[in-house]
Amino acid sequence: MSLQKKVLVTGGAGYIGSHVCKALHTHGHIPIAFDNLSTGHKSFVKWGPLHQGDITNANDLNDAFMKHRPDMVMHLAASAYVRESVADPMKYYVNNCVGSLRLLDAMQCHGVHHIVVSSTCAVYGDCKSLPIDESTEKEPQSPYGRSKLFVEQALHDLGKASDLKWVALRYFNAAGADPDLEIGEDHTPETHIIPLTIQAALGKAPALQIFGNDFDTPDGTAIRDYVHVNDLATAHVNAMTYLENGGASDAFNLGTGNGTSIKDILDTVKRLSGKEVPHAIATRSPGDVPALYASAERAKQHLNWSPTQSSLDNIIKTALNWHRHHRTGND
Fold first, then answer.
1. 144 has catalytic annotation
2. Considering only CA atoms, which of 253, 246, 229 is closest in space to residue 308?
3. Domain boundaries, the chain
């Protein structure tokens, strides 16, 4: 294990960010959660200090770097909904692009040279060949995907022109919850399929809306690659070690290599909860593609990472336990 590091985690009060903070703490590091709490939860900040601020505000960032003097940055603060990005692209270009550039500028000003960035499989778009590897052509279908690809391109250019060393982690679909029930998935409004399915089964939410059952997939519902949030958190710690050890700046897929359909999720929730999932079919969402699942061989090779907690049963079991014990929206 590397020596203790102070790590500024933007979005550290959010779903994935809080799990990353817990993983950093478990490995002996000090996570500093930088978050504006617009979607994050103060109660999720348990393993280090909270610095409340906005990544689009240069003064907030300067204050955080001056006060905490981090050794490196993990950047997870972003707007992250495909459907919303189609309806409100300006929000995505400001939060994701402008915010990331302000963060990178602050790093340069304060002499911080290592960053691990949350990216997304949405940079690929509607891929004709599966599984998706890092060489797959990037044709994002939404402002969200385009904003994230812009950030990756900025990292590449800044890395060539400066001492910046970076890793971009292209998540596929984050899911599941902390088995200790300390943190989990709590969005308002909730848009992710697994918590929506669980909440519908538990009577905590209306009937599930399935956006499209006419995709070119075996059962007509969209196929995605679901990765347990703890596996994603581990990848961030591994990426940090990779950079510390002189690894080259690069982007890596984080996925299981297995496609899971919406119907698979409904069936698994029903089996593990013992309850029917009330649902209705709605029209497809703009920007949605039939299937996305990853090849994560490069992450295995270079980051020493593999998804050990990402079976669908484990994802649903941990998420189900979280939602049974947690009141949504409670801070």
1. yes
2. 229
3. 6-175+227-255+294-308
Report pLDDT for 264: 97
1 has a pLDDT exceeding 50: no
Residue 102's Cα: distance from chain center in Å?
20
Residue 175, beta-bridge partner list: 228
pLDDT in tens, 241-252: 999 999 999 999
Mind listing the pLDDT tens digit for each residue in 92-137?
999 999 999 999 999 999 999 999 999 999 999 878 789 999 999 9
pTM score, two decimals? 0.94
Task: Say how many C-beta atoms besides its own lie within 10 A of residue 303's C-beta.
Answer: 24
Q: How far is CA 85 from CA 96, 127, 134, 148, 211, in A?
A: 11, 20, 24, 12, 16
Residue of 15, 81, 93, 144 marked catalytic: 144
Task: For the chain, give the number of residues.
Answer: 331
Instruction: Give the Cα separation of 269 and 159 in Å (integer).
Output: 44
Mapping DSSP to helix (H, G, I), strand (E, B) and coil, where does residue 297 land? helix
Classify domain 6-175+227-255+294-308 at the CATH topology level: Rossmann fold (3.40.50)
Task: Give the distance from CA 108 to its chain's centroid.
Answer: 25
CA dihedral 87, 91, 94, 100 (to 10 degrees): -100
β-partners of residue 169 are: 118, 252
- Say whether 110 sits in a helix, a strand or coil: coil
